[in-house]
Design brief:
Elements lengths: L1 E4 L13 H8 L7 E8 L18 H13 L2 E5 H6 L9 H9 L8 E4 L19 E4 L5 H11 L4 E3 L7 H10 L4 E4 L3 H9 L5 E6 L19 E9 L2 E8 L3
Parallel strand pairs: 2-7, 2-8, 3-4, 3-7, 4-5, 5-6
Antiparallel strand pairs: 1-9, 8-10, 9-10
Length: 250
């Protein structure tokens, strides 16, 4: 894996031995609250591969960065539909990452926060078993019966009701921050990313361009959700480009 940007570090190699420390430094969260989105897309902007899933666009280098991003996060924000389609479930983090998080007084893996307007979450995936701390972020439109079912599933404190007709992203982020979950990793999908952008909640985008043409299906962000960003760094490995862009607030 080789750094192409920033210019002062162009050509630097992020090898497998000391690479984890370098990646942690490159992707370190700033002090305070911060929402980073992590997505993968084809060169023409599609977020799913031929099988209709984003996972098929991933690669070894992308998964390497993905693991570091999850290690650094306090919570992983993901749409319930994406969690269902992509087969989210409990997964043991690499021991070195789990040990590092434990030394920092955190869970071995960042908990998930599933976002759903309807209250329909994948309940049979093991995400709500054990001590995973999975949360559900929903709204009043889910209805009283759905909210009661979700509390039975995730626990009385595991349901965040934010908003009336739709999930109020800023309110949800405020609640997560009050619980000490200030460093948020949003893994999409595109609809959730668009909602985060529209709400002004995005601080940075981490994007992997897979060396694939996808025909433009399932665009990264729907039209009308534009925001200007500036490059922080860009990595290259196995024909994939892995970048980090910060929202330009000027």
């Amino acid at each position: 894996m080789r750094l192409l940007l920033p210019p002062a570090r162009a050509g630097e190699t992020v090898g497998p031995d000391a690479g984890e420390a370098v990646l942690r430094e490159l992707y370190a969260y700033p002090t305070g609250r911060w929402l980073r989105a992590n997505m993968v897309s084809t060169l023409d902007g599609a977020t799913t591969g031929p099988d209709g899933l984003s996972g098929s666009l991933s690669s070894g280098p992308d998964r390497r960065v993905f693991a570091v991003l999850r290690t650094l996060a306090d919570v992983v924000l993901v749409g319930a539909g994406t969690a269902r389609a992509e087969g989210y479930g409990p997964a043991a983090p690499p021991p070195v990452f789990a040990a590092r998080r434990a030394a920092e007084g955190r869970r071995p893996a960042a908990p998930f926060a599933l976002v759903t307007r309807s209250g329909d979450v994948p309940a049979d995936t093991g995400l709500f078993g054990g001590d995973l701390g999975t949360l559900v972020v929903t709204c009043a439109a889910a209805g009283a019966s759905s909210l009661a079912r979700l509390r039975d599933l995730a626990g009385a404190d595991g349901v965040v009701a934010a908003g009336e007709e739709s999930v109020d992203i800023p309110v949800a982020l405020d609640v997560l921050a009050e619980r000490g979950l200030r460093h948020v990793l949003c893994e999409g999908g595109p609809s959730l990313l668009a909602a985060v952008v529209a709400a002004g909640g995005l601080d940075e985008l981490c994007l992997t361009w897979a060396p694939v043409l996808g025909g433009g299906a399932a665009p990264l962000v729907p039209p009308g959700a534009g925001v200007r960003l500036r490059a922080a760094h860009l990595l290259h490995d196995e024909d994939a480009l892995i970048g980090r862009w910060l929202v330009d607030s000027s």
